[in-house]
Design brief:
Blueprint: H1 3-18, E1 21-26, E2 29-32, H2 33-45, H3 50-58, H4 66-109
Antiparallel strand pairs: 1-2
Helix pairs in contact: 1-4, 2-3, 2-4
């Protein structure tokens, strides 16, 4: 497939994964992986966002359950990180193709 199609497939796979339900239901709310990722990342770890922080505070769980949230967050990061790696690989191949084309063009101009 074309390189752009490969990137599209990678992104679709990550989107599908993130749109699946996590195992958590808090106060009757089922939580998708994408929401858990965003709330945990931007409500607790980095670039704290007031909206995400508020959701995280509503999700307050017992201390013994919090490590499960942390585990799920880290588990979600695995396929996201893999997707970043695979997109990098596609980009490297695209750069090689561009370099090869430039070499052909440079030879033709000589």
């Amino acid at each position: 497939p074309e390189l752009v199609d490969e990137v599209r497939i990678i992104c679709q796979n990550v989107d599908s994964y993130l749109d699946e339900w996590s195992p958590f239901v808090i106060a009757g709310e089922s939580i998708k992986r994408r929401k858990l990722l965003q709330v945990w990342m931007y409500g607790k770890l980095a670039h704290v966002n007031a909206d995400k922080r508020e959701i995280l505070q509503r999700w307050r769980v017992d201390r013994d359950v919090e490590p499960l949230f942390q585990y799920e967050f880290e588990s979600i990061l695995v396929p996201v990180t893999q997707a970043i790696f695979w997109i990098r690989q596609v980009n490297l191949r695209a750069l090689e193709q561009l370099k090869a084309r430039e070499g052909i063009i440079a030879k033709a101009d000589a």
